[in-house]
Amino acid sequence: GINAEYGESESMSATTYANKNATCVSMTSTSGDYKTGNGPTGTYLLKTATTFAPNDWHNSNSIMSTTAVRQQGGSLEIRQAARKLRNDTDNKTDWGQKDNTTRLHDRMIDVTAWKDKLEQTIADTDVEMAALTSHKERCETALTNMNTPFEVVHDNLATRSIRVSIDLVDDEVNQALNKEVEVINGIKEKLQQKVNEAFQQLCDLQDAYNAMCDDLADKMHCLDVDQACHGLTNQSANIGFHKNATRIKEGIVMPDAWDGHSNYNTQRAMAEMKASTALREAINNMIEQTSNDLEAQRLRTEYAFRKRIHEVQMAKDELEWQQRNTKREIDVLSDDIRGLKQAISDKDKPLEVAETRSENRTYRPRVELCRDDPHDGIIAERNDLLNTVTTLIDQHNIAEDAHTQLKQTLDRLNEDWSIKSNSLELEERCMTKRQKLLLVAHNV
After folding, report:
1. What is the pLDDT of residues 232-285, one digit of tens each?
2. Shortest CA distance to 417 belongs to which of 330, 331, 327?
3. Contacts for 319 with CB less than 8 Å, ≥ 6 apart
4. Which of 73, 163, 231, 236 is the most buried (most CB within 10 A)?
5. Residues 178, 191, 150, CA angle at the centre, nearest 5°?
6. Distance, CA of 319 to CA of 200 (rounded, Å)
């Protein structure tokens, strides 16, 4: 400050001195005379001496003093104004720099707040994406597991289609199996729909996640820039003048738009997470519901199977009982037929005796050829024997017909027994195949 004031004093003295000399020259130039002269180098002007009156000398001194005093007073005012201006500008500069440093600090707080919120939302979104991916995979596993009941049910239908004759009936089991196919296809459609919805929701979450990651990267870069700017001082080495430093760069946004951008990204992510949570709950409910539907239909179908197996077993047992009775009846009837044959055969000798008697008595002589009681009795005996043989033959034929019918019935019983045995084996094979469905229900 002393040097500056001294420099100002020297500057002011130099000015005063210049003014004084200018006055003196003016006074001299107005009263001096010139004359010509010759010399070795040529012609030149020769100034003649000028004399002043004492008043002029005193006036000159007075003017000098007055001018100096006046200019010194003006210089004081200038110095005071300069000092005030310097102090004001220094204070304004310092406060302006401090205000902007504070603004940078506040701005860094705002950016850091958004950075923290973005980081938390990104972490939450990442967790939600992992959870939804797990549910999607669970849904895909359940969809894959539907292949087993689908194959089992179609195998049951194909197995039961090879039943033969009267047992190839569209019974309650067939209806239950067809209903089971309908339930399985409906479950597969629902599971596939949820897989597609989960995939789309994961894409939406990924888009929101990427937008927040880009926003977070911009926030991190912004913090680096603002931290560097916040740390700049007048003594920093990396400061300097820059051309058009205050230009408005293309793409600049207002604070509301800046805040709205990050708010939109986070709100969008939270909305997608909410939708994802609802979808996960829907997937859980749907898997549980479809598992219950599948299990309920499995129980209904297997109840129909057990009922049908019981009916076939009862029919088979009845056939076996009828087979035993029919075989026993055939054996008894065969014995009776053999008895009838023997009875018919046994009538040959008595008939021969009767006919021989009758024939021999025809050779009685003359009047002895009498139609006596023996004659009538022998003829009656023969006729009775013939009638008896005819009756026995008729009964034998009836017995033979009954025997044939019994054998045919037994053949039909045996054939139906084979059909029932085949059907029972097929039903039991289906039930054995259906044991796989228990594993599927457990896995789902």
Report:
1. 888 888 888 888 877 777 888 888 998 999 999 999 999 999 999 999 999 999
2. 327
3. 413, 416, 417, 420
4. 163
5. 30
6. 62
CB 274 within 8 A of CB 131: no
- State whether residue 51 is helix, strand or coil: coil
pTM of the prediction? 0.68
Percent share of the chain, pLDDT over 70: 88
- Token readout for 144 is 């894959």
Confidence band (pLDDT; 50, 70, 90) for 12?
A: very low
Taking phi first (over 0 means left), then psi (-120 to 50 degrees means alpha), and beta for anything else, what does residue 42 get? left
Whole-angstrom CA distances from 10 to 5, 77, 249, 266 are 9, 16, 49, 68
| pLDDT for position 436 | 83
The residue behind tokens 């129980």 is 299
Closest C-alpha to 436, from 311, 239, 294: 294
Please state, as a whole number, how many other Cβ atoms lie within 10 Å of the Cβ of residue 316: 18
- Record the tokens describing residue 262, joined without a space: 């990050």
* Sequential DSSP letters for 290-336: HHHHHHHHHHHHHHHHHHHHHHHHHHHHHHHHHHHHHHHHHHHHHHH
Residue 395 and residue 340 in contact, taking contact as beta carbons nearer than 8 Å: yes
Alpha-carbon span 220 to 217, nearest angstrom: 5
Closest by CA to 298, choosing from 401, 109, 430, 128, is 430
Output b/e per residue, 187-226; b: 16+ Cβ within 10 A.
bbebbeebbebbeebbebbeebbebbeebbebbeebbeeb
Alpha helices in 146-171 (DSSP H): 147-160
Q: For the segment 173-183, what is each residue's pLDDT rounded down to a tens digit?
A: 889 999 999 99
Name the 3-class secondary structure at 365. Answer: coil
The predicted structure's pLDDT at residue 369: 78
CB neighbours (10 Å) of residue 7? Answer: 10
CB-based contacts of 276: which residues, under 8 Å, 6+ apart?
A: 128, 129, 131, 132, 201, 205
Judge whether 48 and 37 are in contact, CB under 8 Å.
no
Q: Record the tokens describing residue 182, joined without a space.
A: 């309908």
Say which amino acid occupies 14: A
Bridge partner residues of 70 (DSSP)? none
CA distances from 76 to 69, 70, 73, 83, 343 (A): 11, 10, 5, 10, 176
